[in-house]
């Protein structure tokens, strides 16, 4: 395992040294997770695409003036869920903009039409409807939340998540990726992760690389996540996500991380983070699947046979069969998991609300993975 100083010294490692670093990370992965990689079969539910933040790389967020802003209705949500059920999906990923009602009267009006005054209140009830009317398990990614919000959402969420992205306040400056983004203040995001730990919520977080951060800031972000997990034990997975430039954004011409940068970051993440934290990389943002496996990942995250990645709509999900072939080519089996990882299912009385546990018990095999493994697409 790496120390902070050892990790910092690897900023520019390349060639044979990078290969050796990846081999070390892969060995740790093999010891902890064996010869299998996992994924979650999901539907993506973009409950609202309005947000009070204006990240320099985002095309998901729409303003009321664009004519493209929405809140999905409960019927629209359930239509996605029901079609996902028919395709064997088991996770309903709620992803949404942060607190748009604090910025836009249009968002407040739309919520009022739906019978609510806040996005979190609406999210709670729609997630509860998914539990009541389907067998999909909600995973809630609602951005920064206060402790009461996390407490309220836990009974309607099998797991929750929020990307830390980076702990650098420098990225809040004018001209940087997080300028004019009140919910990207690092301390606010760290507090959300901490609240989830205090309330024993299985949590997903991660870093976004290539948005103007330094290597040191990248390492400090991983260490901050690890420190939180060592104290609370609730971080079930960390995502290392590579920035992709999008036309029409402030960062449209910003340089993207290359494959070596991803391999380097993934390997260092595996050797910095506690082994109980799963390491994930999105497979639709880079198609060098074998290189990711060799760098130490053990999970591909959520993949949908139905819905697009609304955050990166130009990047189609890979077919499950393609990932299976890549895994087998490296000597691994691809297995379907639930949105909650096995080690948290084993402590369900601590990590899962009584309203969630009965549903999961019938969906999980004895090893904690999905009992009914869907055939590759």
**Uncertain stretches of 5 or more adjacent residues:** none
CATH homologous superfamily grouping: Aldolase class I
Morphology:
globular
CATH C-level: Alpha Beta
Q: State the helical fraction.
A: 25-40%
Strand percentage: 5-15%
Which H/E pattern describes the elements?
HHEHEHHEHEHEHEHEHEHEHHH
CATH architecture, by name, is Alpha-Beta Barrel
Q: What distance lies between the first and last C-alpha atoms, to the nearest angstrom?
A: 37 Å
Report mean pLDDT, rounded to a whole number: 95
Radius of gyration: 20 Å
Question: Can you count the beta strands?
Answer: 9
- Give the tally of structural domains: 1
- The name of the CATH topology is TIM Barrel
Profile the largest sheet.
9 strands, parallel
- Number of helix segments? 14
Structural class: alpha/beta
Keywords: 4Fe-4S, Iron, Iron-sulfur, Lyase, Metal-binding, S-adenosyl-L-methionine
Organism: Thalassolituus marinus
Protein name: 7,8-didemethyl-8-hydroxy-5-deazariboflavin synthase
Cofactor: [4Fe-4S] cluster
């Amino acid at each position: 395992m790496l120390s902070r100083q050892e990790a910092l010294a690897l900023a520019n490692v390349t060639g044979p040294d990078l290969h050796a670093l990846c081999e070390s990370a892969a060995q740790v992965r093999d010891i902890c997770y064996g010869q299998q990689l996992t994924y979650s079969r999901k539907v993506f539910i973009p409950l609202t695409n309005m947000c009070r933040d204006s990240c320099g790389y985002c095309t998901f967020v729409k303003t009321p003036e664009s004519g493209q802003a929405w809140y999905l209705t409960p019927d629209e949500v359930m239509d996605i869920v029901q079609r996902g059920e028919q395709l064997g999906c088991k996770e309903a990923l709620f992803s949404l903009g942060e607190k748009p009602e604090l910025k836009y009267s249009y968002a407040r009006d739309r919520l009022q039409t739906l019978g609510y005054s806040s996005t979190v209140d609406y999210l709670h009830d729609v997630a509860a409807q998914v539990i009541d009317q389907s067998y999909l398990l909600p995973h809630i990614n609602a951005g920064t939340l206060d402790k009461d919000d996390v407490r309220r959402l836990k009974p309607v969420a099998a797991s929750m998540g929020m990307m830390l992205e980076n702990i650098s306040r420098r990225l809040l400056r004018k001209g940087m990726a997080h300028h004019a983004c009140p919910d990207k203040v690092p301390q606010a995001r760290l507090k959300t992760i901490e609240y989830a730990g205090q309330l024993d919520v299985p949590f997903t977080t991660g870093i976004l690389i290539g948005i103007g951060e330094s290597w040191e800031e990248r390492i400090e972000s991983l260490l901050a996540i690890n420190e939180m997990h060592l104290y609370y034990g609730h971080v079930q997975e960390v995502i290392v996500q590579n920035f992709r430039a999008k036309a029409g954004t402030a960062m449209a011409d910003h340089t993207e991380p290359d494959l070596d940068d991803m391999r380097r970051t993934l390997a260092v993440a595996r050797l910095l983070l506690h082994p109980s934290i799963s390491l994930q990389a999105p497979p639709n943002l880079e198609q060098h699947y074998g290189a990711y496996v060799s760098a130490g990942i053990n999970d591909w995250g959520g993949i949908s046979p139905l819905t697009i990645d609304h955050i990166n709509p130009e990047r189609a999900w890979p077919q499950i069969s393609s990932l299976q072939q890549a895994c087998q080519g490296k000597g691994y089996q691809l297995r379907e998991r639930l949105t909650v990882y096995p080690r948290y299912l084993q402590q369900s009385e601590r990590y899962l609300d009584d309203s969630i546990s009965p549903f999961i018990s019938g969906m999980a095999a004895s090893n904690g993975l999905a009992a009914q493994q869907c055939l590759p697409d």
